[in-house]
Amino acid sequence: MAIGVWISLFAYFAVMIGIGLFAMRTSTSSSEDYMLGGRGLSPKVAALSAGASDMSGWLLLGLPGAMYVSGLASAWIGVGLFVGAFLNWVIVAPRLRSQTVSYGNALTIPAFLANRFPTQALPLRTVAAIVIVVFFSVYTASGLVAGGKLFESAFAGIFNFGGMGDYGVGIVITLGVVLAYTVVGGFLAVSMTDFVQGCIMMVALVLMPAVVLFGEGGGGFAQATATLNEVDPTLLSWTEGLTFVGWLSAVTWGLGYFGQPHIIVRFMAIRSVKEVPTARNIGMSWMAISLIGAIGLGIFGRAYAVRNGMQIDDPETIFIILADLLFHPLITGFLYAALLAAVMSTISSQLLVASSSLTEDFYRLFLRKEAGDRECVNVGRVCVVLVGLVAAVIASDPNSNVLSLVGNAWAGFGSAFGPLIILALVWPRTNGAGALAGMIAGAGTAMIWVSLGYNSEFMGGPGVYEIMPGFAASLIAIVVVSLATSDANEYQAEQHS
SS3 helix, strand, coil % of the chain, rounded to 5? Predict the structure, then answer.
């Protein structure tokens, strides 16, 4: 492995850890500082932090891999996500920023739900925290799988410490660097590193498709489309071979945005409600560029591989393979850093949110109600490490599929929290009984759907993505149970005038 690659990677690791140390000195003195950065994120940091923590290794591995295999039909996932993200900024962001403050200055999503629905405060907070910890363990594992695949593909045969192999060492290094800056720097470190990582990811997703198309051996757009037509004309079709159920399963990924704690917590931390539109514009511009780049990388990477006689055993590694093949070692190292940035930005956010729930919604709620801020910060740091270790165990299987793991966790959160967050913010009639019923119905339906295999095959046809039945079950349960039970006047409208 060329020295230039190591120089770029070590520089990246040093910057991430340096940001963590800076944040430790400025924003870890209280629980609000450690968990929400003192609610002082600027629009650009909030926007890119939300975007980078959202996209993860899925953007550089999962989506290009799906495009490589299925062509433009898989791009509907990106379309659904873009629409969902925009609606999330419009509907949820300003209301959640305002209401989490007015309802008891809640620092976590479970705490907000408990304050919003005091008649069911304890069960809501407990169930919400359990859902967050369970699904984030799986979600974090997907990021570690991506880190393991990078080391397995890029550094084949170099690492074999303790018999772990390249994949295992990749998991250890990825998790180790993330824990270093997350544990010491908290939310501010996570958000600042997300901003840097988001910039790196976007540059990589502009650079890579351009070189694949127009660099040596690329042949340009016309040659790429001609090659794809020879391989399989359906690769360039948005609709051919795509059933209505398949299309719906793809675009409904966007429903998940409303219930992703690691994304919407950025809305809680932005400096003011007035700055939400600015953050939205920055975030959506970043997302559009990044999604187009990932789609182009996958489909034009397929054309490049075919034209140059390349054998790609795992389509999800197309980014890694082309980075090593087409660029100077220093640039290759930068591109590897972009992949690690995508992975680490999400892992760090998820670890911190899961840790916050364990600290605020278990430790402080059941074990040490009188715990002070300094104690809670230290407990939060321990919880970050514990959740990370559980995720590493889940990720230990090198055959794990990044897109599949992300899809399961994304659907779980979207089903459990999506309808509830929306209705809690906009429908005053929502009550505690309905909120609890909706959360359980959504998470339960999604998990049962996966366990029955209906996400792979349903009624003799293609599978139905579990977020569809899960989101619907949660929405129906909240509305029906809220209307069937008494209105406890839990929504205090005068606070939000």
Answer: 80, 0, 15
SS3 category, 2: coil
The vertex-109 CA angle with 385 and 383, nearest 5°, equals: 10
C-alpha span between 3 and 333 (Å, rounded):
9
CA distance 319 to 312: 11
- DSSP-assigned letters across all residues of 379-422: HHHHHHHHHHHHHHHHTT-TT--HHHHHHHHHHHHHHHHHHHHH
Residue 158, burial from CB neighbour count under 10 angstroms (0-12, 13-18, 19+): exposed
What span, in angstroms and rounded, lies between the C-alpha atoms of 93 and 105?
Answer: 16
pTM for the predicted model, two decimal places? 0.83
Q: With H, G, I as helix, E, B as strand and everything else as coil, classify residue 183.
A: helix
Residues 6+ apart with CB under 8 A from 20: 180, 181, 182, 183, 184, 185, 189, 193
Taking a C-beta distance cutoff of 8 angstroms, is the pair 88, 258 a contact?
yes
Q: Is 461 helix (H, G, I), strand (E, B) or coil?
A: strand
Which ranges in 215-260 belong to alpha helices (H)?
220-231, 244-251
Non-local (6+) Cβ contacts of 121 within 8 A are 114, 115, 432
- Per-residue pLDDT tens, the chain, 497 aa: give them: 567 777 887 888 888 888 878 877 766 566 777 777 778 889 999 998 888 877 776 788 778 888 888 888 888 988 999 999 999 999 999 999 999 888 888 888 888 999 999 999 899 988 988 888 888 887 788 778 878 877 777 666 565 555 567 788 888 888 888 888 888 787 788 888 888 888 888 888 899 898 888 877 667 888 888 888 888 888 888 888 778 888 888 888 888 889 888 888 889 989 899 999 999 999 999 999 999 999 999 999 888 888 888 888 888 888 888 888 888 888 888 888 887 777 787 788 888 888 888 888 888 877 787 777 778 888 888 888 888 888 888 888 776 665 577 778 888 889 999 999 999 999 989 999 999 999 999 999 999 998 888 888 877 777 888 889 999 999 999 999 999 998 777 776 544 43
Domains of the chain as residue ranges with CATH: 3-403 (1.20.1730.10)
How far apart, in whole angstroms, are the C-alpha atoms of residue 452 and residue 141? 22
Q: Are 347 and 140 in contact (CB under 8 A)?
A: yes
Of 387, 432, 366, the residue nearest 118 (C-alpha): 432
How distant, in Å, are the alpha carbons of 66, 130, 364, 368 from that of 125?
Answer: 37, 9, 12, 16
**Alpha-carbon distance 20 to 14, whole Å?**
10
| Helix 261-269 / helix 165-214 crossing angle, nearest 10 deg | 70
H helical segments located in 155-275: 165-214, 220-231, 244-251, 261-269
